[in-house]
Amino acid sequence: MRVHLFGAASSPGCSNFGLKHLASQGHGRFSEESIKFIQRSFYVDDGLISVCSPAEAIHLVEESRALCRTGNLRLHKFVSNDKEVIAAIPLAERAQAKDLDMALGDLHIERALGVQWCVEADEFQFRVVVKENPLTRRGVLSTVASVYDPLGFVAPFILVGKQILQMLCRDKVGWDEDLPEHILPQWESWLKDLPHLAALKIPRSYLPSSFGKVRRYELHNFSDASLNGYGACSYLRAISETGQISCSLVMGKARVAPTKQTTIPRLELSSAVTSVRNGDFVKRELEIENLQECFWTDSKVVLGYVNNDAKRFHTFVANRIQRIKSSTNPEQWRHVSSENNPADCASRGLSAVQLKESNWLKGPNFLWQSNLPPEEQMVGEVEATDPELRKTHVHTVRTKEVNTMANHLIKFSDWSRAVRAVARLQRFVREFKGLQTRTNEATSLEERREAEVFIIKLVQEEAFAEDIHKIKSQKVHTLNKRNKLHQLNAFLDKENVLRVGGRLSQSALHHDVKHPAILPKKSHVSALLVKHHHERVYHQGRGMTMNELRANGIWILGCGNVVSSHIYKCVQCRRYRRTTEVQQMADLPEERTETSPPFTYCGLDCFGPFIVKEGRKELKRYGLLFTCLCSRAVHIETLDDLTTDAFINALRTFVAIRGPVRQLRCDQGTNFMGAKRVFSELLKGMDQERQRAIGCEFVMNVPSASHMGGVWERQIRTIRSILTTMLDKSASRLDTTTLRTFLYETMAIINSRPLSVEHLNDPTGPEPLTPNHILTMKSSIILPPPGQFCKEDLYLCKRWKRVQFLANEFWRRWKQEYLLNLQQRQKWQRTSRNSQVDDIVILKDDSSPRNEWKLARVIEAHPSADGMVRKLKLLISDTTLDKGKPHTRLVYLERPIHKHDDAGLYKCDITDRQGRWTIKWNLTVSSEPEDTSKEISPLRSFLYILTAVTGLLLSVLTSAVCLYRKSWTQTPNQDQESRALSYAQFSVQFGRESIQVAPPAPSQSCAEYKMQPRQRESVHLEAQFNPAKHEVQYKAE
Predict the structure, then answer these.
(1) pLDDT tens profile 1001-1013
(2) Is there a contact between 534 and 566 (Cβ–Cβ < 8 Å)?
(3) Whether pTM exceeds 0.85
(4) Are the CB atoms for 668 and 705 separated by under 8 Å?
(5) Do residues 195 and 267 make contact, with C-beta atoms less than 8 angstroms apart?
(6) Within a 10 A sphere around the Cβ of 362, how many other Cβ atoms?
(7) Organism's domain of life (predicted)?
(8) HSE (CB half, 13 Å, CA atoms) of 902?
C-alpha cells in the first residue's frame, strides 16, 4: 500500500505508527537521543523537547532531520528560545511568528499544543479573547471551554466558571434560556476577570539557568476538598549540589463536587485519588530516575484510611483506598495544615488576581527551605462509629471438612471442559511416572473416554459408597426395597462402574445403552451432563433431552425432575418458550368506587376515522369518547383531526356541557401529551389554591397496555357496533353535521344500557339501572325514599327535591346492583414475582417473530398501591423507554444476584460442675430486614421458619455433643487450652485460661477464611468474658 487517505478516522494512528517505525529503523546509524526524541516527544506532528546546551540542541536538530529524510519526511518549522540554535537552522526550516502582541512587546508567540509560549522570554502566558457569546447556558459552556489549560496552571480560576455552569445544570436552566438573576452577577464578574489572566507568567523551565547540577529531585503532591469542589497539584522540588532549591508547579487538577450531596471525607478521599493519578502521570512523563515522591493532605480521616489494615469499608471507600495503595505506600503520606496546603486553591476557586498572589504557582514556603518539616504523628484512628465501616459478624460451628476430587469439578461449568481437564491431568500423571512420552497434542478420543469413566466413578464412589460396598460383598439382597438401585438391578462392570441391569441384556444395542451408568440426582456432574446433552438436542423438551442422556449411556436418578429444573432455568429456553409475565389484577381505584358527580373522573380515547363529504372534498373526522369511571356514562365529541388544538377545543366543549373534571385517564397519544404540557405551562403562574380549583390531572397509561383502559376501550367497541348499523345506508352521504348527530344518538343509546342484569327477566322487578338515571333524572322508580325525602317528592312542584330524591335513589341502587358485581376478578387471579431492577427480560413484539424480540434490562420498577409492580422502565440497546412498559409484555431471562452481609452472634456458655466442664454452644443468626413489598404467604413463611429452626437445632446439638465429649477429658487444673473451630473454609484458633483460677482476660486471635473465590481475607476476633453469666462472646470487627 503506497497511499494513505487524509482525514480518515485511522489517519492519526497510521501516521504515528509510520513515524515511530521510521525512528526504529535508525538504530546503529543515529544516536539514541534522536531516536527517542521522535518516538517519545511527538504529539501528532508537533515535537517538543528540552536539552541542556545549544550544542546538544543543534546536534539533535541535524540528526532528527537526517533521520526523517530517510523516510522522505521533512522536519521543519523549528522554534527555539536560543538565538544560537536558531542561527544554525536554515531560514526556510524555521517557523514564522504567528502572532505579535504589541502590549507585551515584540516577542514571538508560538502555540505549543494550544498553550501560548513566549519564545524569547521562555514563559507560558494566557491571552483569552472573550467572544460575544449569549448570556445563556450554552454561552457559558462555550466561554468556559475556550480557556485551554491542559496542565492546570489556572485550574482554580476555571473552577469558578465550572461551578457557575454546575449551578445552571442543577437549576435545570435550558440551553438557550437567559441566565437567572441570582447567577448573572457571578458570571459577569468572572467574565470581567478573564482578561486578567494575561498578567500570569509561568516559566517554561522547571529550573533557572544558573541552578547548576541537580543532586536530588522530589515530587510533592497535595490534595484537598470542600463542599464546592476538590483538586490536587504536583510540584517538582530540585536540590542542587550547592544547596540551592527550586520548586515549580508541574500539574494541577480542579473538579467540581458531584451534584449528589456527599460527605467531606469521601470528597477528601476522591481528591487523594486524583493526587495519586497526577503523581503516576507526572512520574511516567518526566522519566527522572530515583524520583522521591511524597503526598500531602490536611485530612486526618484520609490518613487513617490509608494506614488502616484491619478494618473493612463500604465499596466506595474500599475501592479508592485500593487505588491509593496500588501506587503508594502509607509511609509516603504526610499531614499538612490547611493554610499551607496549595490544593486548597483548587477546591474553592480563585480569581485571577488572587491566583497570582497565592502559593499555587510556587508551592508552600516549606518546600523552599533546606529541610522539610519533621513528620508528625497525625494519623487518625478509624473510629468504630465511622459510617464508612462495614461491620461483619462471623458465625462458627464445628464441622468436618471433606475435600474430594469430585468437589474440584464444581469449578467447571461445561462438561466438555471438565473432561478435557481431567484427561490432561491423567496424561500428566502418566508422563510424570514415565509411562508415556511428553506431548502437547490435543487429547484423543480414548483419553477423553477414560476421563469420563474416571469422573463417573468418582461421583459414584462419593454418592453410593455404601451400596457399592454391598454389591462388591455379594449382599445385593440387603439393599432396601425402597432404594432405587434395588429397582434398577444395579451391578458393577469390569471397570467398577455402577450400571443399570435392566431387561435389555439380550438386545443388540451398544453396551453403554443397554447398561447406562448410574448417577445421583443432586450432583454437579449430573447437572453438567444434563446441560451438555440439552444443548446437543438444540434445547428441545424434557423427553428428547432424557432420551439423549439414555442414548449416551447415562442414567440419572430422578432424571425427569433434574431435566425439568434445568430447562426451567435455561436462558435460551426461556427466550423461545416461556410465557409472558402476568401480574394479579389490581384493585379498583378510589375514583371508581366513590359516589362522585358524573364525569368528575373520566377516561378518554379517540376512535375513527370517519369519511365525510364537504362539497366535493372527502375529509376525515374522529370521535372523542369520555367515559365516567364511576357511573359508566359516556359523552362523545367530534374531532376535525388528531392535533392538540382540536383535542383542547373538544375538551372545553365537554367541560362546558358536563361540568369541571378532576382527573382524566388516557393513553400516551401525541394529542393528549400535548394537551397535558399546555395545561401544565398555563398553571405554572397560578397560585396553588387556584390550581386546585381549576386544575385537571392527567394520568397516562403506559404504552401497549390497553387493558389499563378497559373501561373506555370496551365502550368504543359498543359505539362501533351501533354506528355500523346507523351508517350502513348513509355512509356515502355523510357530512360533519350528520356524523355529530349520529354520535349523539349513539351516546344516548349507550347511556340507556343497563348496568346490572339481575331484574331484566323479572316483570315485577324494578326498572334496570342505567347511566341516564343520574344524567337526565328521568326515572319511574318509586321506592321508599332514603333520608328526609319521601315518595311524594316526585310529584311536588319543587324541582330540587325531585332531583335530590332521584340522585340518592340512583346511588343507592348503584351500590347494591352494580358496584358489588365488580368484586370478582375475571382473570389474572394469582400474584407473580415483582420485577426488580437489573432483571434481564425480552420485550414482546406482536409485529415480529419471537427470535427477533429485543433484550432489555429493567432500570426502574414502579409498584402500585398494593405493592405489585405493573409498570417498568426499560433500557433497550442503550435507549431508555421513558414512557414505560406494562408488566404483561415481558419474559424473564435472568434475575439479579442480590448480595447481603452475614450477621449474627456466636456465644459460648461455660459451667463448672464437680470438676468437669460443660460447654454449651449456641448460634443465633439475624439477617437484614426484608422488603415488605415482597412478603410471602403465611403458610410458606411457617414452612421456611420450621425448616430453618430444625436445621439450626440439629447443628447446635451436633456441635454441643462433640465439644462436650472433648471437654470431658479436660482436667480443672489445666492453665491453658487450645481449641480449633471451623465453619466451611473459615478457621479460628484461640486460647483462654481456666475459669477456676481467674476470669480470663479479653483475648484476640486472627482467622483466615474465603470471602469469594481466589480471595482471602484476615479477620480479627475479640473475646469478652462475663463472669456473672459465665458467657464468652466473640464478635468479628
Answers:
(1) 333 333 333 333 3
(2) yes
(3) no
(4) no
(5) no
(6) 15
(7) Eukaryota
(8) 14
